[in-house]
Design a protein that fits this description.
This protein is an alpha/beta fold. The chain folds into 2 domains: 4-228 and 245-361, no CATH class; 364-506, no CATH class. The protein has helices at 13-31, 41-52, 61-64, 76-84, 90-115, 134-137, 141-159, 166-182, 184-198, 203-226, 240-249, 261-288, 291-305, 316-319, 324-330, 338-378, 398-403, 412-415, 417-423, 457-463, 465-471, 482-488; strands at residues 65-67, 385-390, 426-427, 436-438, 474-478, 492-498, 501-506. It has a 5-stranded mixed β-sheet. Strands 1-4 form a two-stranded antiparallel ribbon. Helix 1 packs antiparallel against helix 5 (90-115), helix 8 packs parallel to helix 10 and helix 9 packs antiparallel against helix 13. The longest helix has 41 residues, at 338-378. The protein starts with 12 loop residues before the first helix and ends with a strand.
Length: 510
């Protein structure tokens, strides 16, 4: 399957220029803001900081968290950022990790496509069109990095030939292990793709695939035995179809901003470009009838079959979408016509530029709000117990708004991690899993309770005011707060109000 000519395919000066320009494009949104508004990213940053400074008595992380020493499927990203924090400030270390992903995914996709023998140069840059995907908008940085490593592993699988030497087999095993330790779903997709490729290959490569699967399966079993956490994908719900459509279109998520004309116009343009790119790739792959086409078809079938519902812990369906365009590109081995190549250039560059520009615009608009939120958190003394209250005015027609990327997505819901990053203590809404766990009894309520459907803050506050007075020195309120003001003010006094951010202090504890 591998075309030896791909290894002699020289890189021209124009290739370096395109690589440099697109690299700047995908890195720009990360570095022009202080607070990248990728939702779950902040909890990943917090986990790394807890690991980096777990022994610091001044921060006191060990009072509230414990480290789980098991072969966890999402441990490597946390450890890498924790090591980076020994050299850089936490915010900088986090941005360096995001940058490594933003460059690593396109380079890994390029390696895979070139390993397959693809001569169509625009497809060497297909990975840049995938950096800002639904998983990255949601801040699922463990999976995003695992996708980059998995694509690199698939490229290596294609390049090592029919009867790989022991050294190449060891490299395959190492890449599979690293993918597993970065995120389970990246590893699962790697096993699916390489397993499909191994069907028509030598017994040595099939044995190599079995070895990779067994090795990581043993580690997963050891992890499952040592913890009560289980992988679960058993949810669909009434919103499944609309979620699937939105994920398929990879709609950019607004960072808590209202959808305006610029957003709607850019989203509509991006949808047209993405569908056009998918159509051209599919037509070219069908024309050439490469077996990579069937691998892509099975990934699409998995996307439809697996859950895609937004706002859940696991969205395995949407995660296949990062792989599909790259696998389709790897199916376009023979040279395309000049007209098709020009069209692919325009579509790939458009798919890379528009999401990056959108992220830059959206994140810049949100940066001021997050700065106000950060200012409120910095006023809280180290080691304090803090409750986060987030109030949202849901749109009258919720799902059309979600489909357009304006679904009351508010990074403040997870931004409380910054308090723990800089000062220690326990912040109720911090959601930690994997390597870092909340100690039993550290929180009066489980830290992810607000995600329950039908939850209403005013009702909960009224019924739990006694516990609130006993347990929390400070309350941070983000969003429209008129419904909770009258509930809190008898027992809490205002310390700060800035924009939609309000900091309240317990009158009996300060």
């Amino acid at each position: 399957m591998t075309n030896p000519e791909c290894k002699r395919d020289s890189i021209r000066p124009v290739d370096w220029a395109v690589l440099a320009a697109l690299s700047v494009c995908v890195l720009l949104p990360i570095w022009i803001v202080r607070y990248p508004a990728a939702q779950d990213y902040w909890n990943h940053l917090l986990k790394a900081k807890i690991v980096a400074d777990y022994g610091d008595a001044g921060l006191g992380y060990s009072r509230f968290y414990r480290i789980l020493l098991l072969p966890i499927p999402n441990i490597s990203s946390t450890l890498v950022m924790a090591l980076a924090m020994k050299l850089f400030a936490p915010m900088t270390a986090g941005k360096l990790f995001l940058s490594a992903y933003a460059l690593g995914l396109p380079l890994a996709a390029r390696y895979l496509v070139r390993s397959a023998g693809v001569h169509c140069r625009p497809l060497h840059y297909i990975g840049f069109a995938l950096v800002y995907n639904p998983c990255f908008w949601g801040g699922y940085i463990d999976f995003c990095m695992s996708a980059a490593i998995a694509l690199l592993a698939v490229g290596h699988w294609l390049r090592i030939g029919v009867n790989p030497p022991p050294r190449s087999c060891a490299a395959c095993l190492a890449l599979a292990l690293l993918t597993y330790l970065t995120h389970f779903w990246g590893f699962a997709l790697l096993i699916v793709v390489t397993g499909l490729l191994a069907i028509g290959e030598s017994s040595r490569k099939r044995a190599l695939w079995v070895g990779c699967t067994v090795l990581c399966g043993i580690m997963l079993a050891a992890y499952a035995r040592g913890t009560s956490e289980r992988l679960s994908a058993g949810y669909y719900g009434a919103s499944y179809t609309l979620s699937m459509v939105r994920n398929f279109l990879s709609m950019p998520r607004l960072a808590g901003q209202e959808a305006d004309g610029a957003h709607l116009a850019s989203a509509a343009t991006l949808i047209v470009i993405r569908l056009s790119l998918l159509g051209v790739l599919t037509a070219e792959a069908v024309r050439q009838r490469s077996r990579m086409l069937w691998v892509a078809a099975i990934l699409v079938a998995l996307y439809v079959a697996l859950p895609n519902q937004l706002g859940r812990m696991y969205e395995p369906g949407q995660r296949t979408l990062v792989f599909v365009p790259v696998i389709l590109s790897a199916a376009v081995i023979t040279r395309s016509s000049a007209r098709t190549a020009r069209a692919l250039w325009a579509l790939v560059i458009g798919c890379a530029l528009l999401p990056a520009l959108f992220a830059a615009r959206s994140w810049r608009a949100k940066d001021a709000d997050l700065a106000a939120y950060h200012d409120a958190l910095r006023r809280i003394p180290s080691g304090s117990s803090v409750l986060h209250v987030i109030t949202v005015d849901a749109p009258p027609l919720e799902w059309p708004a979600k489909l357009l990327g304006s679904d009351a997505y508010r990074p403040e819901a997870f931004f409380g991690a910054v308090y723990n990053v800089e000062k220690g203590g326990f912040y109720l809404h911090t959601f930690t899993t994997g390597l870092v766990r909340v100690r039993d009894g550290a929180s009066p309520v489980r830290p992810w309770f607000i995600m329950d459907s039908g939850f209403e803050w005013p009702r909960w506050l009224k019924s739990n005011m006694d516990m609130l007075r006993r347990s929390y020195e400070y309350v941070v309120v983000a969003g429209p707060r008129r419904r909770v003001d009258r509930v809190l003010t008898p027992d809490y006094e205002r310390v700060l109000r800035r924009g939609e951010i309000e900091l309240l202090a317990n009158r009996g504890k300060i």
